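Example for tutorial group B:
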């Protein structure tokens, strides 16, 4: 817990620096203080639930997603799997559905 708190204070400093370098020039936004950046981090944690283990919560999401895809593909014929892969690849280039079959 102590390391998490230290990390949050560090990321607040990084956020303040990045915000003050970009936002005022690009969007005519205000400069922010350290405590405002800390508040932004806290608010984003509350609203979006980030900073969990496994790459900010993506590890669990990805595991559940892979399991759903695996279950769906088990019920498909080889032709349906091929069409599914092609359609999925064209829409969601960042997710590798072939990992699901390789794990079996």
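The residue assignment follows.
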């Amino acid at each position: 817990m102590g390391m998490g708190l230290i990390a949050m204070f560090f990321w607040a400093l990084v956020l303040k620096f990045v915000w003050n370098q970009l936002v005022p020039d690009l969007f005519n936004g205000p400069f922010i203080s350290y405590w405002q950046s800390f508040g932004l981090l806290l608010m984003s944690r509350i609203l979006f639930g980030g900073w969990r283990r496994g790459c900010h919560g993506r590890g669990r999401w990805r595991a559940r997603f892979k399991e759903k895809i695996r279950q769906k593909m088990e019920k498909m014929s080889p032709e349906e799997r091929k069409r599914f892969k092609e359609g999925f690849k064209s829409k969601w280039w960042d997710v590798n559905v072939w990992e699901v079959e390789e794990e079996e």
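Residues 2-27 form the longest helix (26 residues). Compare this with the pattern of hydrophobic and polar residues in the output above.
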